[in-house]
Amino acid sequence: MQTTYKRLLQDDILPSKMPDVGLLRSYLQEGCPNGDPICLSFGETWTQAPAELTQEINRPAQEAHGYQLSMYGLPELRTVLKRYIVEDHQVPASAMDARRLEVAVTWSGTRSTMFDLGRYLLARPPAGDTRTPVVLSSGPSWDYTGVYQPLGFGFRYLSLRPENAFRPDPAELDSLVTELERSPRERLALTIINAQHNPTAVNWDPDFVRAAIRRTWAAGGTVLLDDAYYRVHVPDCTPTSSLRILLEELERTPEAKHRWLMVRSLGKQFHANGWGLGALAGDPATVDILVNELRVSHQLMYGGILQEAMARFLASPKSGRFLREQQLAWRDKRACAVRALESRLCYPSERIHPGTCTSYMLFAVPEVYTGIPLGVQAFRDDVFRATGVLLAPAWPWPWETQVPFPIPYVRMFLGPNEELIQTALERMDAAGIRYDMRRRLAA
């Protein structure tokens, strides 16, 4: 892996201001004193895309090398993807009969689609309402602020805390929405539902998802379903289908038909983040505006080779077999990490949160780090310097110094193979990192 990191990072400029990049470059320049870096922070393996998928790249049609002609994506992939979404998310037949759903391909990541949704909402404010639009997100969370704050949106956070097993509280959500309804300066514009939640690995309860959709629509807001990790879970977890619930709710609230969007990444489930492929789904009229008016302002139609390959792979039984095998691996790697944290690093079970979905889990920082400023970041940095193992704060970058409320936990990526995760925890043990340690490593 040292070779991989050098290829990605060695340059005469700092390629990214992401804190992890600075730490990795410094470690490489020091000669990797504790062995190859083990990156368990941001969710990337670089090496584990299924061979059945990558082999499809080698046989593209000639026209795949040029610009594509549809802003909805390659028709072959769009058709396969629409069928895949309908079946995988248990979309009600009534929603298809009533044409409440259209699907398009994203080929530059779902982040750009979220940004376009923000532009869509800003161009359509409630008549006469000049209040600042606000995004309601859970916290800790993925970097939704990086998408929406530059557009001028404010933020509110639904707190996910260890005392409640990181589960969202419908009463708190109701209180936040009520506060915005009564505010003379702000209004609820968008609620983000990430039901297979990053970073807490909690599969949100269907009743909470339903309540969040109803409450948002009642307040005049729009719902974004971020289903990046929908099929990333352990075998005995049934992922909550926010899309199915939303379409059921749309039957009783048809006036909200333009106030929702779903995005789903394919890169997360197939270890192909660099392909940028995913889906966006919404009302046909909404999707048409997003792809043919807003998307075209910042990207043209490209990536035909990757879209062709993904279409063939998704249509094949091989994709389903890969996901089933991977779900077994998520279970085994979680169990491996829990065993090592308890037996080697002296963690009490209540300070370990393995979760059931996504490619992450959480565990608490040692208590000696909780009483110092930026204790989570100090623990992450100390661990990396002492072991070459890179973890992430529960509030991932770029939240480094601006978290709305602290969560004294770190996030560990479980994407690498079980042996590498075991090695990482063995290094931490050898460096004296334990939950009951009496002083920080750098002290």
UniProtKB/TrEMBL annotation:
Name the Pfam families for this protein.
Answer: Aminotran_1_2
- Which parts of the sequence belong to the Aminotransferase class I/classII large domain? 135-326
- Cofactors demanded by this protein: pyridoxal 5'-phosphate
InterPro entries, alphabetized: Aminotransferase_I/II_large, LL-DAP_aminotransferase, PyrdxlP-dep_Trfase, PyrdxlP-dep_Trfase_major
Q: Which organism is it from?
A: Corallococcus llansteffanensis
Molecular-function GO terms, alphabetical: pyridoxal phosphate binding; transaminase activity
Q: Does the keyword Transferase apply?
A: yes
Lineage, top-rank taxon, reads: Bacteria
Protein name, UniProt field: Pyridoxal phosphate-dependent aminotransferase
Annotated keywords: Aminotransferase, Transferase
